[in-house]
C-alpha cells in the first residue's frame, strides 16, 4: 500500500521464532492473516511495535473485558474485519491481470479467496501450487520455433512473428529456447520430428525434401544426460531419413557437456557452427536435391 520494500524471509523467520518461544508458554500459534494486516493499516499503525500494543490490549481484553463481549454476534465482528479488508483490494490491478494474463488472474483469485474464506495457509498453498504448476508446464513444453531468413540481411527470425522471413529450401532451421533435461526431452524430440514432417508435407515433390536440420542452441542454458541421449536418438532417426544434424552456437556450459559425453565426436566437430548464416552457407554446397533451384532462390533473397 505504501510501496515499501519487504523481506518475506525475515517475516517467516519472525513467525517461526515467535511460535517456538510461544510453545514454551502454551501460547496460540502466531500468524499474519490478511484481515489483521488490513485492520492494522486502517488503524494507522506504522511499525511492528503495534503488535506489542495489540498483544497487550488483547491480554487485558481477555482478562477483564471478555465477559462484556461475550454475547457480541460473530456477524458484527466479521463485518468489522471485512470492511477493513475490502479497502485493501486493488480492483484495477485485478482487472489488469485479467486482461494481460488469465493464469496470473487465476493465481491471484485463488490466493485471495483461499485466505479470505478458508485460511492463510490454504490460500498460500493454492497460489504457490498453481504457480508451480504453471512453471512445470512452461518447462515441460519449452518454446521452439522455425526460423527464416530476413530478406537483404543475414538475420534469421521466427517465421510466425516475421511473416516476411523466407525459409531456406532444403534446410530446416529450428531454435530451442529453454534448458533441455529429462522433463522436456521427449517433447523436444517429438516437436522437432513434427516440424520435419510438416515441412516435407504430404506430397512427393523433391522441393519439399529436407536434407539439413540446424538446431540453434543459443537460448539453451543447460542440458543433462537425458537431453544428450535425446539428441543422439534424434540423430539416429534423422540419419535414417537422410537428414544431417548440425548444432549452431551452443553455450559454453552446453558445449562442455556435449564434449564430455562424446556427442561432438558422434556427429563430428564440423557439424558445429558459430552462426546460422555460416551453417546455411555450408549446407548450400552439400544439398543433393534441387540444388540449382535453391541457389537461385537464395541469391534472389540477397538482391537489394
Secondary structure topology:
Layout: H1 8-23, H2 34-42, H3 49-65, H4 74-86, H5 91-100, H6 102-117, H7 120-140, E1 144-149, E2 156-158, E3 171-176, H8 185-200, E4 212-216, H9 225-240, E5 244-248, H10 252-260, H11 263-267, E6 272-273, H12 276-284, H13 291-301
Parallel strand pairs: 3-4, 4-5, 5-6
Antiparallel strand pairs: 1-2, 1-3
Helix pairs in contact: 2-4, 5-6, 6-7, 8-9
Would you summarize the structure shown here?
The chain is of the alpha/beta class and 304 residues long. It is 55% helix and 9% strand. The chain is built from 13 helices and six strands.
Write up this protein.
The chain is of the alpha/beta class and 304 residues long. The chain has three domains: 10-66 and 73-87, no CATH class; 90-140, no CATH class; 144-301, STAS domain (Transcription Regulator spoIIAA, 2-Layer Sandwich), CATH 3.30.750. It is 55% helix and 9% strand. The protein has 13 helices and six strands. The protein has helices at residues 8-23, 34-42, 49-65, 74-86, 91-100, 102-117, 120-140, 185-200, 225-240, 252-260, 263-267, 276-284, 291-301; strands at residues 144-149, 156-158, 171-176, 212-216, 244-248, 272-273. A six-stranded mixed beta sheet has the order 2-1-3-4-5-6. Strand 1 and strand 2 (156-158) form a beta hairpin. The longest helix is centred in the middle third of the chain and has 21 residues, at 120-140. It is elongated, with a radius of gyration of 30 Å.
Amino acid at each position: 500500500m505504501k510501496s515499501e520494500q519487504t523481506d518475506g524471509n525475515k517475516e517467516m523467520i519472525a513467525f517461526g521464532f515467535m511460535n517456538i518461544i510461544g510453545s514454551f508458554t502454551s501460547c496460540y500459534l502466531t500468524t499474519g492473516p490478511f484481515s489483521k494486516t488490513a485492520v492494522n493499516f486502517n488503524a494507522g499503525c506504522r511499525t511492528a511495535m503495534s503488535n506489542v500494543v495489540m498483544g497487550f490490549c488483547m491480554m487485558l481484553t481477555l482478562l477483564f473485558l471478555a465477559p462484556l463481549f461475550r454475547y457480541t454476534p460473530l456477524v458484527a465482528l466479521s463485518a468489522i474485519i471485512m470492511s477493513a479488508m475490502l479497502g485493501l483490494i486493488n480492483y484495477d490491478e485485478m482487472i489488469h491481470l485479467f486482461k494481460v494474463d488469465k493464469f496470473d488472474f487465476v493465481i491471484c483469485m485463488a490466493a485471495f479467496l483461499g485466505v479470505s474464506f478458508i485460511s492463510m495457509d490454504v490460500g498460500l498453498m493454492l497460489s504457490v501450487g498453481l504457480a508451480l504448476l504453471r512453471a512445470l508446464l512452461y518447462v515441460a513444453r519449452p518454446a521452439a520455433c522455425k526460423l527464416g531468413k530476413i530478406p537483404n540481411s543475414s538475420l534469421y527470425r521466427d517465421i510466425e512473428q516475421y511473416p516476411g522471413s523466407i525459409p531456406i529450401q532444403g534446410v530446416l532451421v529450428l531454435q530451442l529456447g529453454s534448458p533441455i533435461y529429462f522433463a522436456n526431452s521427449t517433447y523436444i524430440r517429438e516437436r522437432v520430428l513434427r516440424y520435419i514432417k510438416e515441412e516435407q508435407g504430404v506430397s512427393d515433390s523433391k522441393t519439399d525434401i529436407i536434407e539439413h536440420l540446424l538446431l540453434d542452441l543459443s537460448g539453451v542454458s543447460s542440458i543433462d544426460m537425458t537431453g544428450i541421449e535425446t539428441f543422439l536418438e534424434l540423430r539416429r532417426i534423422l540419419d535414417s531419413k537422410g537428414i544431417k544434424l548440425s548444432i549452431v552456437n551452443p553455450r559454453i556450459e552446453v558445449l562442455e557437456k556435449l564434449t564430455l559425453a562424446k556427442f561432438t565426436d558422434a556427429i563430428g566437430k564440423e557439424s558445429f557452427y558459430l552462426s546460422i548464416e555460416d551453417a546455411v552457407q555450408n549446407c548450400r554446397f552439400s544439398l543433393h536435391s534441387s540444388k540449382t533451384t535453391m541457389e537461385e532462390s537464395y541469391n534472389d533473397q540477397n538482391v537489394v
